[in-house]
Specification:
12 helices; 310 residues; 42% helix; three-stranded mixed β-sheet; alpha/beta; Glycerol-3-phosphate (1)-acyltransferase
């Protein structure tokens, strides 16, 4: 059988007979796998009924089959979908659940996903508007994302276990945490996507705050591209002083990556200013085009200046 090891494993799961007699809905890599290996018709009774959102594969039990078969097939399908995207099953499940909440409640949309490398290490650098930021950035990417989170979040046993299970690792704020720096370097060199919030804390007013230069030194030493990521709209849905989020209109824009050759001669401080200018310009463009996003500090002349400077 041709195909990558991941494809062969996924196909092996689905040809064990547990999906026989099901109607299937699939999109993304899963559709391509079965087209290359004989099509959906090679599994008796399995038919493509249309496309599913967010690249997930969904199945429903065909009439006349028992409930046990439906449960087994659904578990197999979710496991295989996560495997095809190179994700751990639990990470894939959490991603799927958070997508539903984010799209339905926060009306989250993503722009520029093509700018996220399909493989290899990269540093995703985002502004920080709320506790939901890691969720809204990670759920759109068809790769597992690694997260650096402040150490106090790991103090609660259950929540600490949960964020570790979705690839978070602790960092002590306001100190030179050598252990966290080494862990970040290790994960980048292993080819992972690493998400960081170099503002260090949530914004008090929705603006992009000054960035800490240490995180850019990590990218320079690891030799990986930097992808600026703008989050806008979460601040209105869940500002710092508010207890719980309200429905929102959230945009996540993945900007053009800055390649290692472009910042080879720059200092971490210069890299910091370059990325911050990009984020400010991205935010200014959205506020200019969609007036309902504007906050009290918005000024049209400053918006144009920020866009032209970038």
């Amino acid at each position: 059988m041709n195909g990558s090891p991941t494809e062969r494993l996924a196909l092996a799961h689905l040809t064990k007979g547990r999906l026989t007699g099901y109607e299937g809905v699939s999109s993304g890599p899963s559709r391509g796998i079965f087209q290359r290996h004989g099509g959906w018709d090679m599994l008796p009774g399995l038919r493509v009924a249309g496309r599913a959102g967010a690249g997930m594969s969904l199945i429903r039990r065909a009439p006349g089959l028992g409930r046990r078969a439906g449960r087994d097939g659904f578990r197999c399908n979710l496991r295989c979908t996560a495997t095809m995207f190179g994700m751990k099953p639990f990470y894939g499940f959490c991603r799927f659940a958070c997508q539903g909440f984010s799209v339905a409640y926060l009306r989250t949309r993503s722009i520029g996903l093509r700018n996220v490398p399909a493989d290899g290490g990269a540093l995703l650098v985002s502004n920080h508007q709320s506790f939901l930021d890691p969720v809204v950035v990670g759920i759109h990417i068809r790769r597992e994302v690694q997260f650096m989170a402040r150490d106090t979040l790991f103090s609660h046993p259950l929540f600490g276990w949960l964020i570790k299970a979705v690839n978070a690792f602790p960092v002590r704020r306001n100190t030179a945490d050598l252990g966290a720096i080494k862990e970040a370097m290790r994960r980048l060199k292993q080819g992972h996507l690493l998400l960081m919030f170099p503002e260090g804390t949530r914004t008090p007013d929705g603006r992009v705050q000054p960035l800490l230069p240490g995180m850019f030194a990590i990218a320079k030493k690891a030799g990986v591209p930097i992808v600026p990521v703008l989050i806008d709209g979460v601040f209105k849905a869940w500002p710092r002083q508010q207890l719980l989020p309200v429905p929102g209109d959230v945009i996540v824009e993945y900007g053009r990556p800055i390649l290692p050759a472009e910042f080879k001669e720059l200092s971490p401080e210069q890299m910091t200013e370059t990325v911050r200018d990009r984020l400010i310009a991205m935010q200014a463009r959205w506020h200019r085009l969609q007036p309902h996003r504007r906050l009290q500090w918005y000024r049209p002349d400053r918006s144009r200046d920020a866009e032209s400077a970038s």
